[in-house]
Specification:
Shape: globular
Strand content: 15-25%
CATH topology of the domain at 2-167 and 212-237: Rossmann fold
Largest sheet: 7 strands, parallel
CATH superfamily of the domain at 2-167 and 212-237: NAD(P)-binding Rossmann-like Domain
Helix content: 40-55%
Strand order of the largest sheet: 3-2-1-4-5-6-11
Radius of gyration: 19 Å
Structural class: alpha/beta
Number of strands: 13
């Protein structure tokens, strides 16, 4: 199978590229390298450097592909609050360009990366896909718009689409060196450097942290599941077991053998208080089954970061 991975030099995308190549697929990557890195990719993989918002570039990348994994996006709730126009351009126009090019090229299926943020702060916990969608940030609005476009392309054109609502994916290759970095790489980087991690709010907010290998497995399942079960639909992808930020710090400090006193700051605008996925629909329709525990995922992530960290003798107290 020939597959296109947009954002394939990024965090989740590069792990997906590895999995596709490992099973013998022909893979092309489309990435503008704004946040992705070529050193995330194996030597020799076909890379088209360009933007998903450019129709000609997307058409060139999608030619001859059976499946498209659309991972490219401008992430971060905080960034979307600061610059909503940029998020809309990348996430809405980019998704529409990918869907249009896929339809015109005769692609069988497009698997799209969506986000748990589309729920806002869901009152139903664990949260099923049928819960009301009340996005609370421009980023969340862009992801919901992408889901609607995906459904419409299935209904109007017969392009098989499956949207995956990721819940706080983490793991190796996730960047910490950005003002919009996610919480786990930020915590890990702080602990390895021997400085107190910053916690927005009281730290009791919870997230359904999902190891990247499980997110990759969900993509592979979503590409092959029967269309009559999943086309035009969106699915929660998570472990189905939330943890608070304070619990996360306890696990990390235990793995590293340090004691942690975090610095608490103001809550971030647009953040939700709790996140907990009901993953029964993905289990039923996609055959999705998360295989990596939170502790194991953190251990793998720490091992990757420690290989690349500068040694420090300072211990947190």
């Amino acid at each position: 199978m020939r597959a296109l991975v947009t954002g394939g030099a990024g965090f989740i995308g590069s792990h997906l590229v590895d999995a596709l190549l490992a099973r013998g697929d022909d893979v092309v990557v489309l990435d503008n390298l704004a946040t992705g890195r070529l050193d995330n990719l194996p030597a020799g993989v076909e890379v088209i450097e360009g933007d998903v918002t450019d129709p000609d570039t997307v058409a060139r990348a999608v030619a001859g592909c059976e499946v498209v994994f659309h991972q490219a996006a401008l992430g971060s709730v905080a960034r979307s609050v600061a610059d909503p126009l940029a998020s809309d351009q990348a996430n809405v126009r980019g998704t529409l360009a990918v869907l249009d090019a896929a339809h015109r090229a005769g692609v069988r299926r497009v698997v799209l990366a969506s986000s748990s943020s589309v729920y806002g702060g869901a009152s139903q916990v664990p949260t099923p896909e049928t819960a009301p969608l009340v996005p609370r940030s421009p980023y969340a609005v862009t992801k919901l718009a992408g889901e609607h476009y995906a459904r419409v392309f299935w209904e109007l054109h017969g392009l098989e689409t499956v949207c995956l609502r990721y819940f706080n994916v983490f793991g190796p290759r996730q960047r910490h060196d950005s003002p919009y970095a996610a919480v786990i790489p930020l915590f890990v980087d702080a602990l390895l450097r021997g400085v107190p991690p910053r916690v927005h709010g009281d730290g009791r907010q919870s997230r359904d942290f999902t190891f990247v290998a499980d997110a990759v497995a969900a993509n592979l399942r979503a590409a092959e599941a029967p269309a009559d079960r999943c086309a035009g639909r969106a699915y929660n992808i998570a472990r189905g077991r939330p943890a608070s930020l304070l619990e996360l710090l306890d696990l990390l400090s235990d793995e590293l053998g340090v004691s942690v006193t975090p610095v608490h700051t103001d809550p971030r605008p647009g953040d939700v208080r709790h996140s907990h996925a009901d993953i029964s629909a993905a289990r039923r329709d996609l055959g999705y089954a998360p295989a990596v525990s939170f502790r194991e995922g953190l251990a793998r992530t720490l091992a990757w970061f420690r290989e690349r960290a500068q040694p420090t003798q300072e211990k947190i107290s």
